[in-house]
Amino acid sequence: MRLTEVKTGDELDLGGLTLSFIETRLLHWPDSMFSYLKERKILFSQDAFGMHLATGAIFADQNPSETIKRECEKYYANILLPYSSKIIALLDSVGETGLEFDVLATDHGPIWRRPEDISRVLGWYREWAEQRPKLKAVIVYDTMWGATGKMAASIADGIRSSGVDVKILPLSGSDRSEVATEVLDSGALIIGSPTINNQIFPSLADALTYLKGLKPKNLIGAAFGSYGWSGEAVKQLNQYFLDMSVETVSDGIRALYAPEPAQLEECFKFGEAIADELRSRIEAV
Ligand SMILES: Cc1cc2nc3c(=O)[nH]c(=O)nc-3n(C[C@H](O)[C@H](O)[C@H](O)COP(=O)(O)O)c2cc1C
């Protein structure tokens, strides 16, 4: 049998060892396929359970556990997130077949060999694929002279004061893959941009175009930004939310040039209101 001809359910005799092929239902690429070495209980999982981590420590348990979790999550958020419903179906079907794994060997990154690590990564995949809203908000923004940045800080203070965790990501120091990773772990996405030439700031367009393609789910959203005269940015950010099917919980908030203390107080309340809305939605589930 040539490898190019294998089909789901085929078995290949490797001279005493049997390699069986398990379809992944188009997980990532159309030709992606799990293969399973029966006698050794090794699952060659291709893209699944991997990460973009180049390390000489080839087993997951030889690396710091926080690094492994973060890199695994980053890979999921940036590569696999759009396929989440297929991943849930795959996890269900693998569970139903009762396949046992002693080793998960992925194409990218370290190999999983300890039972506790294997069940941990399977649990993470289910959690990330289900995308249940979390009691955490992420604020993604950019700023030319700090006005939108001040708004971001006050919104974050308001969120925190309501007991919700918040991560602030200024795009001057965060790349789009970091944004996607934080969004995976959040229930609210708050985006801020100054208006420049009647548009949003280009770095926001970059990050949001990327994020839109990853199809994050179960988020609430809100927009903010400073402006000088026409102030289109907030309206355009709301359009991104609409395109991403993210429900906005407000029309957004704008400040003329550098925000006055009264406007920063408004931003604080805006943050509180978003946090309260997030909490009540999570409690209602
Ligand atoms: C090149 C440039 C173009 C701008 N174009 C607009 C515009 O079209 N409409 C508007 O309302 N403000 C415009 N502004 C004003 C900024 O939005 C305003 O200064 C804002 O406070 C900047 O916020 P930031 O400090 O967060 O960057 C422009 C500013 C610059 C430098």
Distance between the termini: 50 Å
Task: Report mean pLDDT, rounded to a whole number.
Answer: 92
Number of helical stretches of at least 4 residues: 8
Report the portion of residues in β strands.
15-25%
Structural class: alpha/beta
Number of strands: 13
- Name the poorly predicted regions: none
> How many distinct folded domains?
2
Bound molecules: flavin mononucleotide
**What fold name goes in the CATH topology slot of the largest domain?**
Rossmann fold
Please name the CATH architecture of the largest domain: 3-Layer(aba) Sandwich
Question: In one word, what is the shape?
Answer: elongated
Helix proportion range = 40-55%
Helix and strand run: EEEEHHEHEHEHEEEHEHEEH
What would you report as the Rg, rounded to the nearest angstrom?
22 Å
Fourth-level CATH superfamily of the largest domain = Flavodoxin domain
Give an overview in words.
- With 285 residues, this protein is α/β, with parallel strands linked by helices.
- The chain has two domains: 3-130, Metallo-beta-lactamase, Chain A, CATH 3.60.15.10; 136-277, Rossmann fold, CATH 3.40.50.
- The protein contains eight helices and 13 strands.
- It has helices at 65-80, 84-97, 115-130, 147-161, 176-184, 202-214, 233-243, 261-284, and strands spanning 11-13, 18-23, 33-37, 42-46, 103-106, 136-141, 165-170, 188-192, 195-196, 199-200, 220-227, 247-248, 253-256.
- The strands form three sheets. Strands 6, 7, 8, 11, 12 and 13 form a six-stranded parallel sheet that branches. A five-stranded mixed sheet has the order 1-2-3-4-5, with no helix packed on it.
- The relative contact order is 0.12.
- Bound molecules: flavin mononucleotide.
